[in-house]
Amino acid sequence: MKMARLAALAAVAVVGLVLATPAHAQTATFSNLVDAAPGSSWNPDTTAVDPQNPNRLVFGFHSSISPTSWTSLGSIYLSLLQQVDPAATTAELGRMRELIERDGTLWEVLDSRGRPWHSASRLSISDASMLWGAILLDLLEEDARR
């Protein structure tokens, strides 16, 4: 009895496999892609479907040229540049020194003109005298000793 039931189930499975339609690959469609922060991350103009895999979207990115500069990242960059090219570091440190002497502080974020950044609404502004200025101070002192 168990054998008969098992044989019947196997027969149903075989019939199901024979009658089943083959699966077809699906292709995703991408449309109306909008960047949440236009101009600051991915670029819709250079974003496209991968020609080898239509289900893969290849994101293009902006040139990384930002209208703002974060001085903390600049200080870290300069500390690395110091190890690779001390002469170039001296020139870059000179620019930072000029900004600090001009304003009497190290701003958190500078705009494209080298001025303290503020949001369009002016509700958010660059902070002054940030702690990471210690990284820059260390570099300035080291540069002065050379």
SSE layout and pairing:
Blueprint: H1 2-19, E1 42-50, E2 53-61, E3 68-70, H2 71-84, H3 86-103, E4 109-111, H4 133-145
Antiparallel strand pairs: 1-2, 3-4
Number of alpha- plus pi-helical segments: 4
Assembly form of the protein: single chain
Supply the helix-strand structural class. Answer: alpha+beta
Approximate shape: elongated
Roughly what is the average pLDDT, rounded to an integer?
75
| Biggest pleated sheet | 2 strands, antiparallel
Topology pattern, helix = H, strand = E: HEEEHHEH
Give the termini separation: 95 Å
Biggest sheet: strand arrangement: 1-2
Secondary structure tally: strands: 4
Question: What does it look like?
Answer:
The protein has 146 residues and is of the alpha+beta class. It has four helices and four strands. A hairpin with a 2-residue loop joins strand 1 and strand 2. The longest helix has 18 residues. It is elongated and about 95 Å long.
Distinctive features:
alpha+beta; two-stranded antiparallel sheet; two-stranded antiparallel ribbon; 4 strands
Q: In brief, what are we looking at here?
A:
This protein is α+β, with helices and mostly antiparallel strands. It has 4 helices and 4 strands; from the N terminus they run αβββααβα. The protein is elongated, with a radius of gyration of 30 Å.
